[in-house]
Amino acid sequence: MKDAVIFDVDGTLVDTNYLHAVSWWQAFRQHGHTVPMASVHRAVGMGSDKLLDAVLPADRDRSADDAMRSGHTALYAQYWDRLDAFADAGALLRRCASQGSRVVLASSASATEMGALRRALDADDAIDAIASSADVEESKPAPDLVEVALRTADVAAEQAVFVGDAVWDVRACVRAGVPCVGVLSGGTSRAELMDEGAVAVYASPAELLREFDASVLHRTIA
Q1: Which of 95, 133, 137, 168 fits a disulfide with 141 by CB distance 3.0 to 4.6 angstroms?
Q2: Tell me, which GO biological process terms does this entry list (predicted)?
Q3: For 151-203, how does the pLDDT look when each residue is reduced to its tens digit (9 = 90+)?
Q4: Would you call the peptide bond into 141 cis, given omega within 30 degrees of 0 as the criterion?
Q5: DSSP strand E in the chain: where?
């Protein structure tokens, strides 16, 4: 039977969460909103629509929302040629591919941004497909992106494992019926990920690779 390992990218494979946080923080300030950086970081991983609602006042002038999203994109784009993958992230993708698992990246990144993330990963030989938020009706923590990834890989939920760094990843997976393995590389605690329903949590992609044979990623379907 076919099986798949689906990976979130930002904060899971590539070290971008804090770059997103500072870019959002600056975009908010440009429009008169001062938001504590910690609050911004904790919302990273949601879709941008939900992120704004999570950190900004409900009674704000929403006519500026699109401008803040555009501002975040422009500010974050300055980092694209300097993005770093986490240690052994590419090797982890290749290990999954080597056992015959389909490797799918699931991300809300635009096509251009995804290009920068893939360059940082330098593991295109191991990637079978990309699931994009352009194909979903609702962003995380809704299950839509996980479900699109399943369809892209042509597998059922019980034939897949998801790897992510945020509580939003875990919540989306729980709703989609896909087990989620957490990593701490995005800045979310082990307790938070486990409390949301992660089946296991590792410090980093490198630790997950070291412990691969004992993990749920190893031969996810016999």
Answers
A1: 168
A2: DNA repair
A3: 999 999 999 999 999 999 999 999 999 999 999 999 999 999 999 999 999 99
A4: yes
A5: 4-7, 102-107, 129-132, 160-164, 180-183, 200-202
Question: Which element (helix H / strand E) includes 94?
Answer: helix 89-98
Residues 208 and 153 placed together within one structural domain of the fold: yes
Cβ atoms of 101 and 5 closer than 8 Å:
yes
Q: Do residues 139 and 67 both lie within one domain?
A: no
Token pair 């034939």 is found at 159
pTM (whole model) above 0.90: yes
The residue assigned the tokens 């701490």 is 184
Domain range for residue 48? 16-79
Q: Are residues 52 and 140 in the same domain?
A: no
Is residue 9 domain-shared with residue 25, that is, in the same domain?
no
The torsion angle over the Cα atoms of residues 186, 192, 195 and 200, rounded to 10 degrees, is 40
Instruction: Tell me how far apart the alpha carbons of residues 95 and 92 are, in angstroms, rounded to a whole number.
Output: 5
Q: How many folded domains does the chain comprise?
A: 2
Those residues with Cβ within 8 angstroms of residue 49's Cβ, 6 or more apart along the chain or in another chain: 65, 139
Query: Are both 110 and 211 inside the same structural domain?
Result: yes
